[in-house]
Amino acid sequence: MQYLEIKGGKKLSGNVEISGAKNAALPLIAATILSKNSVEISNLPNVVDIKTLIKLLENLGATCEFKDNHCAKINASCINSTKATYDIVRKMRASILVLGPLLARFGHCEVSLPGGCAIGARPIDLHLSALEKMGATIEIKDGYVIANAKDGLKGAMISFDKITVTGTENIVMAASLAHGKTTIINAAKEPEVVALCKILDSNGVKIDGIGTDELVIHGTNGKLLDINSIKVIPDRIEAGTYLCAGAITNSKISITNCEPKHLGAVIAKLQEMGFEFEISGDKITILPADKIKPVEIITSEYPGFPTDMQAQFMAICTVANGTSLIDERLFENRFMHASELNRMGADIKLNGNVATIKGIKNLNGADVMATDLRASSALVLAALVANGATKVHRIYHLDRGYENLEGKLKALGADILRGDE
Ligand code: EPZ
């Protein structure tokens, strides 16, 4: 296993280019199952989760040709199996995104239950009940979802009890080939969902209400799509993470190839903490604050404050001038970074899903353990300002969703290196 060693105390400067969004690329890769020909996807992030999902498709018989680390041509027309096995699905829950497209195209599939993960139980009941409303029969057997719709899926009225990002994406893809119209009420509105809908809508599937919480998908009655090329949108969470690197080190840095309008809640929170910004086109520059003010955060679905930025902000709060509160409303166990930050001298108290963070003058370097993707990035951020050296262990979590994190931070002036345990 590998670790990152960071020596804290360096100011950052310069510019970092944001990669394509992992959480936009994953549903788009799954959507290639709906296409009758090869699909070229550009601006892919070079991260492990992308390789994992492409490997899953190849295991089903699809072919993939990487033109470079950021561009792949995927041909799902030669898929000859519809069983997504546990060995791959257990590595990445987002594998569940093949369920809707496989069922829609082939009328049958077996997808391993993804199981929980570090941040929570992460059930898929909403995905399954929606597919049943579309006429599928769903059986859970030996840890697999066995789905059948031999006469194809039919349009239905779906109302999600909770807003689910991959649940919305799965049903939008399933509805794309269905017979008739599917309405999704309480749909997720994340930019990644909007990007998927726009691609489908411009390739033969009429979708009304894109960007709103009510989507109407007019199915093609089983006719495959003709998707040619797709460009992945910038990663708003990676962008937010680098803005937090500028904030916690109180440095002036710029990020480019990002979409500022996807970062409204994140920028607003950093402004509340005393930071100012220069925004022009796809470039955002964060300017140092006189002092970092404490803040109150409640995570919610887009366009509210993203749960995927909660850990990174907790790191900043540990060195703010006062007491901050973070209320994590989406996941039941997304505070595992708190105990690791406390090992660095932070003063964080947890009470259920609410964290109270009393700002301190300095964090101290320590050996800490990454537990999930965003928690790992929070530990790296804390290490950037801690006295002395910090080793973040088990950084395979980071490699799942951040492209070349140490290279990008080193280019900004951080003292960071990757080592083998
Ligand atoms: C997506 O996960 C993201 N992953 C997550 O990012 C992100 O944290 C999450 O949305 C929330 O924004 C991808 O897009 C690949 P949900 P997803 O279904 O779709 C409950 C990262 O760090 N729920 O929107 O799995 C669920 O338990 C990852 O990049 C049900 O109860 O999340 C949670 O409490 C982490 N039943 C809430 O809904 C269901 O059937 C939101 O989950 C589905 C979800």
TrEMBL record:
Compartment(s) where it occurs, according to its Swiss-Prot or TrEMBL record: Cytoplasm
Reaction it catalyzes: phosphoenolpyruvate + UDP-N-acetyl-alpha-D-glucosamine = UDP-N-acetyl-3-O-(1-carboxyvinyl)-alpha-D-glucosamine + phosphate
Ion transport listed as a keyword: no
Binding site for phosphoenolpyruvate: 22-23
Example of a GO cellular component annotation carried by this entry: cytoplasm
Keywords for the protein's UniProt record, in alphabetical order: Cell cycle, Cell division, Cell shape, Cell wall biogenesis/degradation, Cytoplasm, Peptidoglycan synthesis, Pyruvate, Transferase
Any single Pfam family the record assigns to this protein: EPSP_synthase
Chain positions recorded as UDP-N-acetyl-alpha-D-glucosamine binding sites: 93, 122-126, 308, 330
Involved pathway(s): Cell wall biogenesis; peptidoglycan biosynthesis
Active-site residues from the entry: 117 (proton donor)
2-(S-cysteinyl)pyruvic acid O-phosphothioketal PTM positions: 117
GO molecular function, one term: UDP-N-acetylglucosamine 1-carboxyvinyltransferase activity
GO biological process terms on file: cell division; cell wall organization; peptidoglycan biosynthetic process; regulation of cell shape; UDP-N-acetylgalactosamine biosynthetic process
Domain Enolpyruvate transferase: 7-409
Location, primary (coarse class): cytoplasm
Listed EC numbers: 2.5.1.7
EC category name: transferase
Function statement: Cell wall formation. Adds enolpyruvyl to UDP-N-acetylglucosamine.
Family: Belongs to the EPSP synthase family. MurA subfamily.
NCBIfam families: murA, PRK09369.1
Name this polypeptide is given: UDP-N-acetylglucosamine 1-carboxyvinyltransferase
Annotated source species: Campylobacter corcagiensis
Encoding gene (name): murA
